[in-house]
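Changelog excerpt

This revision adds worked examples to the README so contributors can see how folded entries look when concatenated. The first example is reproduced verbatim below.
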Amino acid sequence: MMYFGLILCMTFMGAVASVFFKRASGSDGFFKLLMNVNLYIGGFLYVAAAAINIVVLRYLDYSVVLPLSSVTYIWTMVLSYVILQETITKKKILGVACIVLGAVCVAV
């Protein structure tokens, strides 16, 4: 059960990392991008999520971990709505629901 908690943590960190990368993408030019702290925060979070992924893969089957990582899509949708003020359409919700349903079917 602890490993499923780690998967939730890993997927959340990956989604938050993407938000920081999105913020960094607004930099004008390559040099300003390299100076943008959001790039490094996002990179750190991605590396930390990858480390958690490696730990989880030691104890759970890859055929379970990878489909469950689709929870990232849920976090991404919520964060894009709350933090980035993006519009969430019914079509996007249906798409994510299909992905998650498919992951559950594979993982169970």
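The second example, added in the same revision:
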Amino acid sequence: MQNKDIYSILKLNKLVFDKIEFKRLGFQKDNKIEFKIKCSISQRLDTDIYKITLILNGYKPDEYSLEIILTGIFAIENNQELSEKLKNDLVGKNAIAILMPYLRSEVSLLTAQPGVDCVVLPPFNINQMLE
């Protein structure tokens, strides 16, 4: 027996990597990698379908740079009325949290090659990122 109350009304319909780029700039160094992450959220007109794009830029001085762009298409499946604030929280925070493991995995895959230290992305403060 399934309890429908435990399932999220936010559904990931599609996930794509729009860009995966790795540029070698030199040989392995002890420099620290720096990350910048951006997020864009858009809504299809008159629907509860949202497009969330994460853009991650990484730079390890004199060794490499990388860029990953990941897009998720989400829908809110619900028969009841939700406030705009609740929808924005669901889409903004939860959708980004759903996409992060895919982004984290791709960074590790890109950096798991000869002559490069494999990188595991640290946790990001999603609330601060959205401000």
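Reviewer comment on example two: The mean pLDDT is 88. The chain is about 25% helix and 40% strand.
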